[in-house]
Amino acid sequence: MEHFKNQPIPMLIRQATIHDLPTLLQFEQGVINAERPFDPTLIPGAINYYDLEMFITSPDVELLVAELDGELVGSGYARIKPSEKVYFNFDRFAYLGFMFVSPQHRGKGINKLIIDELKEWAKAQGLHELRLQVYADNEGAVRAYEKVGFCKHMIEMRMEVE
């Protein structure tokens, strides 16, 4: 168990299980709803980003949840991916995603606890590179990732052709 922000409430960061799926599916919709304002290319209506059941069972994915007093309050995963370019100085990396903290628990360091555990998992897999994607206009998320050590690297741009 971990404590966050010097508060006495025990925070447990653990691997997700199949029993966590109903809550994880709600978290996924939370991620999607938070990202919709930043992405006009998302189709309207219900969508899913992740194959959460596969993430739970795959040896190449570490899906973690944050649990506070028996309630799931956050999530995140690291997935081993091959390098996109032959000229990178790494052949595999850990891609992080599904970073979600329940609104009432944001700002308490939960995201950092999850990322720290994912970083340790990546090291144990022999990986030396972590990557993630965040919408450039999502300033709060950008600041949160910078706060835990990520730095801006490449900006992907888009244009709609009419």
Automatic annotation (TrEMBL):
CDD domains xref list: NAT_SF
A Pfam match: Acetyltransf_1
Q: Which residues form the N-acetyltransferase domain?
A: 11-162
Q: Which domain of life is it from?
A: Bacteria
Cross-referenced SUPFAM superfamilies:
Acyl-CoA N-acyltransferases (Nat) (SSF55729)
State the UniProt keywords alphabetically: Acyltransferase, Transferase
Instruction: Extract the InterPro entries matched here.
Output: Acyl_CoA_acyltransferase (IPR016181), Bact_Acetyltransf (IPR050832), GNAT_dom (IPR000182)
Q: PANTHER family per the record?
A: AMINOALKYLPHOSPHONATE N-ACETYLTRANSFERASE-RELATED, AMINOALKYLPHOSPHONATE N-ACETYLTRANSFERASE-RELATED-RELATED
**Protein name in the entry:** N-acetyltransferase domain-containing protein
Species of origin:
Mucilaginibacter dorajii
